[in-house]
Amino acid sequence: MKLNGQDFIKGIIIAGLVAVLGSLQTILEAGHLPTGAEWLTIGKMAGAAIISYLLKNLFTNSQGQIAKPE
Fold first, then answer.
1. What is the 3-state secondary structure (H, E, C) of the chain?
2. 14-68 tens-digit pLDDT
3. How far apart are CA 34 and CA 23, in angstroms?
4. Distance of CA 31 to the CA centre of its chain
5. Around 32, how many Cα atoms within 13 Å sit in the side-chain half-sphere?
6. Environment class of 36 (CB within 10 Å of its CB; exposed 0-12, middle 13-18, buried 19+)
7. Which of 3, 10, 24, 49 is the most buried (most CB within 10 A)?
8. Global confidence as pTM
């Protein structure tokens, strides 16, 4: 039930990149560059992914077990 600075950095990098790159791939394959509305959606998805990653880390112990005490 604790997070450290490393968790925030990893969360931003991993979850943010996955959301952004996954969305961009779909948009670029459709044959156009992202619009302002699409960038806003990508940002929201990246934010949700980062929060999800941090929540998972908050409820995971050092052994990787969810909702189990140390």
1. CCCCHHHHHHHHHHHHHHHHHHHHHHHHHCCCCCCHHHHHHHHHHHHHHHHHHHHHHHCECCCCCECCCC
2. 888 998 999 999 999 999 999 999 999 999 999 999 898 888 888 887 777 777 7
3. 9
4. 25
5. 5
6. exposed
7. 49
8. 0.77
Q: What is the pLDDT of residue 8?
A: 82
Length of the chain in residues, anyone?
70
**Residue-level pLDDT at 3:** 77
Strand partners for 60: 66
